[in-house]
Structure formats: C-alpha cells, structure tokens
Amino acid sequence: MVKLTKAIFDKIIEDSKNAYPHECCGALLGNADGDEKSVSTARLLQNMNKERAADRYEIDPAELLKVEKEGAKEGLDVVGFYHSHPDHPSKPSGFDRERAWPDYSYIIVAVAGGTEVEAESWTFTEMDAPFEVEEIKITD
Length: 140
Ligand SMILES: [Zn+2]
Known about the structure:
Layout: E1 2-5, H1 6-19, E2 25-33, E3 36-45, H2 61-73, E4 77-86, H3 94-99, E5 105-112, E6 116-123, E7 132-134, E8 136-139
Parallel strand pairs: 1-3, 1-8, 4-5
Antiparallel strand pairs: 2-3, 2-4, 5-6, 6-7
C-alpha cells in the first residue's frame, strides 16, 4: 500500500497533465514500514528522454541523487516513483518493469487527451516477479 495526502496526489495528477503529450516523472519521498509506504513529498524530475518523451522516461541520476540527499536531511527516503502514460493505460510497460527495482512503489498516471486521468500504483518484491497493483490510500 502507498499512502499519500490528497494534496500530493493532486500534484502528481497536475504534473502528469502539464507534461502531456509527454511523460512526466518524479520521485516519491517518505518512509516505508514493510510494504506500507507513506509519501511526504512528490518531487517532479526532468524527463531526460527527449527522443521518446511521449512513451518513455529517463531520470537524471545526478538530479535523483540531489533529491535523495535533500530528503535524507529531513529523514525521508525515496520510496517510489511516478510517471505518466500519455494516451496509454496506467499499466507498466515492459520497459518500465525492466528498469524497476523491488519494493518501490511505481505510480502510473494515464492521461487521455490531456484531461482524463487514471492512476494506479505498482510494485513487486522479488527481482524476477511481475508487477502487481497495490492500493493507493489517499489521506487528508
Ligand atoms: Zn511507463
């Protein structure tokens, strides 16, 4: 389960709409307790993939490291990532799975036509296991 406030969830949706027709990507910072993750901040990152920005994202490792360091100062870890799928369902692609690490939450926001949105979160525990959908719990 991944828990986030309505304000953070809305920001993720806004980032996804703003990036349309390109993919946005960002990091989720918070704390994990077993498979329950609480997100305290969602940080938009630059999508480095310019050639295929409509269907792939690439995070700048240096930018991510900077965000990780800033989070660590406040006692926050990177617990997951979010990205958008312009005009595609909120299911992870093969490419998404290849690039993913176990135990992180991967929130995918489908943005149809720049306005209709649907979000799902995906996770897996074993390196060779498939992605499974996990509950997104929105708190106040
Ligand atoms: Zn994707």
